[in-house]
Amino acid sequence: MKFFEHSAKKIFKKNGINILEGHVAYSPEEAMEIATDMGLPVALKSQVLIGGRGKAGGIKFADDPGEAFEKASKLLEMEIKGEKVKHLLIEKKANIQKEFFLSVSIDRSSKKPIIIGSIEGGVEIEQLAIDNPEKIIKYHINPLKEFFPYEAREMARKMGVGSELISSVGGIIWNLYNVFKKYDAQIAEINPLVLTDEGLIAADAKLEIENDSLFRHQELAEANSFKPKEFAFVKLDGDIAVIGNGAGLTLTGMDMIKLNGGNPATFLDIGGGASENTIKKALSLVLNYAPVKVVFLNVLGGITRADDVAKGVISALESSKRKINIVIRLTGTNEEEGQKILEKAGIPFEISMEKAAKKAVEIRNALVE
């Protein structure tokens, strides 16, 4: 059983190997949402079960959410060596100072596990093995005996790792072998293991488990669980972002924008019980979407509380580098408290959806005249 990178990394992290912060995206909209939420710049990495994705163009970088959307769109249209890219891993871009290669597998000829390491990792590792085989260090392990940390440090020393990193690299070698042994793996690999300002991090992860042993590792299924979506986001062709709490209310808001001569840039349903944090994330997402000139936030509070909406709006506007006009229709549960919060912050609002939609279109038209 082969694991996607994001699943393998969860297992590595659980066993003491540091990884980058990352989340899975199935659409360009999710990629943009994650990039907005996580911070920039980011790496967008195609999730496939074959090697060579880097050389095939399956890894891209983005410096802003709009660029993350565009590059995710292209990646999700790709096939890499015949395998369709169905999802992406979005990670913070690492500040890489040095790359290493580490792998644990079975040496069929000696019938023993073998650790392979090099102080030169990355996409050219296969060519390195041909051109400079002396830079590839191999260490066989007796499976009937314990593999000790000092042996892992000795492996790091033979690789040519600097004295200041021998202990750290040795610790990762030891942890990687323990993953290999614990999960009955056929291969456990990090290429590259990178040195960053935050220390040593597994920038990639490869894990393949013997199928006949999976009954012993039911917990591995948990590694395939993904971060649930907090709201539904769809990119449209206009320039007025529409946000609502509920699909019906969001669609009605879009109709009102169209009725007044405007064009929606987004359909963004935050759901019926959106929290202050969800409001902030949703608003931050559209504020970072380049085509948006005006935001129309249409909230009829039921389970969603108007005061939470107001606090989320203020938090998003304070943290956004991009200043965009926002028109808010806010009524329902705790509406007086929510409206007072907006008034105190100097943020105008409307009670009528019709008036709010008309105002959003008027502001947009004034901006483009």
Question: Summary?
Answer:
The chain is of the alpha+beta class and 369 residues long. The chain is elongated.
Question: What is the typical, i.e. mean, pLDDT?
Answer: 90
What portion of residues is helical? Answer: 25-40%
SS field, number of helical segments: 11
- Number of separate domains: 3
Describe the sheet with the most strands. Answer: 6 strands, antiparallel
CATH topology heading of the largest domain: D-amino Acid Aminotransferase, Chain A, domain 1
Description:
- By secondary structure, this protein is α+β, with helices and mostly antiparallel strands.
- It folds into three domains: 144 residues, ATP-grasp fold, B domain (D-amino Acid Aminotransferase, Chain A, domain 1, 2-Layer Sandwich); 73 residues, Dna Ligase, domain 1, CATH 3.30.1490.20; 137 residues, Succinyl-CoA synthetase domains (Rossmann fold, 3-Layer(aba) Sandwich), CATH 3.40.50.
- Helices cover 36% and strands 25% of the residues.
- The protein is built from eleven helices and 17 strands.
- The strands form four sheets. Strands 7, 8, 9, 10, 11 and 12 form a six-stranded antiparallel β-sheet that branches. A five-stranded mixed β-sheet has the order 13-15-14-16-17, with helices on both faces. Strands 1-6-2-3 form a four-stranded antiparallel β-sheet, covered by helices on one side.
- The chain is elongated and about 80 Å long.
- The N and C termini lie far apart (59 Å).
